[in-house]
Amino acid sequence: MAKEQKAPKPKAQTPKGFRDYFGTEVTERAEMLAQIAGVYHRYGFDALESSAVETVDALGKFLPDVDRPNEGVFAWQEDEDGDKGDWLALRYDLTAPLARVYAQHRNDLPLPYRRYAMGPVWRNEKPGPGRYRQFYQCDADTVGSASVAADAEICAMLADTLEVVGIPRGDYIVRVNNRKVLNGVLEAISVSDEAQAADVMRTIDKFDKVGAEGVRQLLGKGRLDASGAFIDGVGLADEQVESVVSFLTSGRQQANLGGMGIQRPIGQGGGHVASSNEGAFKSLELSRVVQDNTLNELRRIVQGSPQGIEGVDELAEISRLLNAQGYGPDRIVIDPSVVRGLGYYTGPVFEAELTFEILDEKGRKRQFGSVAGGGRYDDLVKRFIGQPVPATGVSIGVDRLLAALREKGRIGSQSVGPVVVTVMDRDRMGDYQAMVAELRSAGIRAEVYLGNPKNFGNQLKYADKRNSPVAVIEGGDEKANGVVQIKDLILGAKIAESASLEEWQDRPNQFEVPRDQLVSKVREILESYT
Amino acid sequence: MAKEQKAPKPKAQTPKGFRDYFGTEVTERAEMLAQIAGVYHRYGFDALESSAVETVDALGKFLPDVDRPNEGVFAWQEDEDGDKGDWLALRYDLTAPLARVYAQHRNDLPLPYRRYAMGPVWRNEKPGPGRYRQFYQCDADTVGSASVAADAEICAMLADTLEVVGIPRGDYIVRVNNRKVLNGVLEAISVSDEAQAADVMRTIDKFDKVGAEGVRQLLGKGRLDASGAFIDGVGLADEQVESVVSFLTSGRQQANLGGMGIQRPIGQGGGHVASSNEGAFKSLELSRVVQDNTLNELRRIVQGSPQGIEGVDELAEISRLLNAQGYGPDRIVIDPSVVRGLGYYTGPVFEAELTFEILDEKGRKRQFGSVAGGGRYDDLVKRFIGQPVPATGVSIGVDRLLAALREKGRIGSQSVGPVVVTVMDRDRMGDYQAMVAELRSAGIRAEVYLGNPKNFGNQLKYADKRNSPVAVIEGGDEKANGVVQIKDLILGAKIAESASLEEWQDRPNQFEVPRDQLVSKVREILESYT
């Protein structure tokens, strides 16, 4: 045993980049996920929970961080009776596992297969402020449908979802683009080298962050970033660069041409929105015209590229389907600058952005930004079975959306704690337990103080820390007289805060009631505060 | 790109010992966990979700499999810019992480701290039938209370929980023992060597499986197991062996002395219960006498061991507290044979067992068995901070409990699928989308068929696979006439099953309604089946 005592104490810490969630952080997330599941379910999506662990082979390598192609996941090698076995890894998203699940179980699943999934995913990345290596995703996907109606449905469902969890209409926008259009632009400017094409895509994806001028530099010779480091450019010719930039800003130009005065603050650190809050889209009709103009402009830019034209046609069809269901461009809008980082998208891509303003860490106003994204990925299942299986879906960044709801004051208010029954007489624990049992039977959250009861002040401090609305006290005298003391802690706190206000002083915050009126009196107090 | 095409296709399979959960498997578990969380919350417990990944140091080594002390977890070493960092691992339970969380955050947490947690845990073990390497646990623990009132509360809450999720009173029993009593027995028979003491504990824990005679052999010279392998015995003297066996069976002897006729089928493969279904405890009063007799018998056996006497006193106090709240030995009973495998328990230990019978894989009747267990572990937090912090708690085996509810028919019935709107005219997808949007707005789960619409038979097969109650059809003629066809698929299935019954033949299972009555008519059909 001596050895054990010498062993150094383990550090009481999560590994770097991981954290714990307490109380309402857990329950508010669970409630939001249940609301989202409700919407997904109503749309006919079925739940799926795949294992957190997959073979590295099955997961594939689709993380956006191309600089470290072998990293990004937490992986280890199986040890089978001393022999080395498969490499296993924690899933880094819910899409790669879906492709594996569909390939494995496709004979038992309906075709098309609509499924939703929610749960943690893990990324082996450098943690940063607010950037964790375990976080929640909440996805919905349709596997086995090539129709853009499936994409349109996902976009409509995303809009519904945001409203159901508490983001009001006008505070969000779902932006839709199409990889085929992006490819069409590359085709139109004669970029055929795959590596260079990927570089252009990644640069377009930085439009939000660096703005038109930044993209112009990055597509050309390069650019000094904020830290003073020089970022090499993609090396396109000036003409090519201007085509891409005019494509990127075509939605905005159209909007301006339409006289809509749409504000799209773009630039370093700036947000990126298609509509401002103050009713910039004064009329849905007008905004539909803008939408049509955007599509026409795109069609002009990709002319000569069959893939590009196909992409614009798909966007037009999505727009038509959504309008038929009442989702106008005030909620879902065509936007050429949406790329989505992941390499596996093959068609429509979408992104949900929250357009209300918050203050960033430096106190500057900015748009809240992206909370969800997705798109069509027709080749992920093909990896497994050799045959193409069309698929499309969306992933909600759960923690981002929770942060948004907190900003809007929808969640995060301090929750009321349990009624605390104090312990005046250690030997009568049975009496106190009976009280909490009665309260609970009446549906009232209640607990008996289980710490050392010697110091009564500590018990009241505990009730305070628990944010308890009511404390119950039964000493020897009360017991003998068949009564209990009830202490209204919310009222008590109010009196303490505003000692001079007669309003509160008139009301006693502690009173005696017959023991058999314990439950009804406590309920009365609780109801007076709701 | 040629390289990529040559790469072998990845296998579409979960790693060995992992599985996927579909549809109601996911939602029924979520609902049960929400019910359990409701009970825990009412008892004043707060939610906690710790990270799935911990340092190996923080987790410690408390898995019961002593033969492989370095295994049992999925672990890997951090790679920090090329340097090797900490060893990380997936949590194997929710208790070890709680000890870390409490040690890390103790200054911000209430004292005592009641918390619940639910989520997957991972064990790197050989998988077997029904034995997976990822499974759910659902725990509640009280940290910082040395009072046995905390243990009693956990036991009462466990009983409440089982009833709330759907295990009726009489179908479960919570069995309580105390490690101090077990230690007292060892002291009384002069087993002081720690390794030998641990061997005796493990043998006692096998009482359920091998019965009294098996324990007798294993404590003595050893025993041939079912496969013909010889298992070495602990090597106790005959007298010592008999003391342990009489201790183990003391509850039963008392029961028999009390004339209660309690059935406790014990032996190879047999279950292990404290009360049979047929009202063996005819009177709660009598069973309280039995309980008292058991305590007296235990007190006799551990005499001379201060720790043993302390343990019996604690059991008596737990029994008294539970009786005061109305939890008699028909629900929670003292049982000397409960050990619980984990090495970290230091005081009261408990186990919830379901006592109804099921058929095992060979068609033999047996008790359903254990679904939850826990106990007091006063030293887990001490590992981190050097000072003892008392703690007690329970863990529910979520999958076992779900299996039990399935056995009882509480869950697992086939769920009704969504209304399916079929696609007769590919170009009018907008019309069909508008229909499902209307149905959903009315709270009706609905989807449009998104597969290739060419073959209408496939659409109806799809609706069948989805277990849809209703299909909606709108062809060109219907559209022109402002009507839709509604197909009652539940009625259709009934007619198909019992074609000769006039009852069904009188009702048409497909009819035409005006388009604007779509929602009300579908609702009418759905309501007729609920």
Q: Helices, strands, pairings?
A:
The structure is a homodimer of 530-residue chains.
Chain A: H1 2-6, E1 21-22, H2 24-42, E2 46-49, E3 53-55, H3 56-59, E4 75-80, E5 83-90, H4 95-105, E6 113-122, E7 134-143, H5 148-165, E8 172-178, H6 179-188, H7 194-205, H8 207-219, E9 222-224, E10 230-232, H9 238-248, H10 250-257, H11 284-301, H12 306-324, E11 332-334, E12 348-359, E13 365-376, H13 382-385, E14 391-397, H14 398-407, E15 419-421, H15 429-441, E16 446-448, H16 456-465, E17 470-473, H17 476-481, E18 483-488, H18 489-497, H19 502-505, E19 510-514, H20 518-528
Which descriptors would you attach to this protein?
530 residues; 3 domains; 20 helices; 41% helix; homodimer; BirA Bifunctional Protein, domain 2; five-stranded mixed sheet; alpha+beta; eight-stranded mixed sheet; Rossmann fold
What this model shows, in words?
Two copies of one chain form a homodimer. By secondary structure, chain A is α+β, with helices and mostly antiparallel strands. The first copy, chain A, folds into three domains: about 20-145 and about 380-415, BirA Bifunctional Protein, domain 2; about 165-355, BirA Bifunctional Protein, domain 2 (2-Layer Sandwich); about 420-530, Rossmann fold (3-Layer(aba) Sandwich). In chain A, about 40% of the residues lie in helices and about 20% in strands. Chain A contains 20 helices and 19 strands. Chain A has helices at about 1-5, 25-40, 55-60, 95-105, 150-165, 180-190, 195-205, 205-220, 240-250, 250-255, 285-300, 305-325, 380-385, 400-405, 430-440, 455-465, 475-480, 490-495, 500-505, 520-530; strands at about 20, 45-50, 55, 75-80, 85-90, 115-120, 135-145, 170-180, 220-225, 230, 330-335, 350-360, 365-375, 390-395, 420, 445-450, 470-475, 485-490, 510-515. In chain A, the strands form four sheets. In chain A, strands 2-6-7-14-13-12-8-11 form an eight-stranded mixed sheet. In chain A, a hairpin with a 5-residue loop joins strand 12 and strand 13. The longest helix of chain A has 19 residues, at about 25-40. The two termini of chain A are about 55 Å apart. Mean pLDDT of chain A is about 85; it is low at about 65-70 and about 255-280.
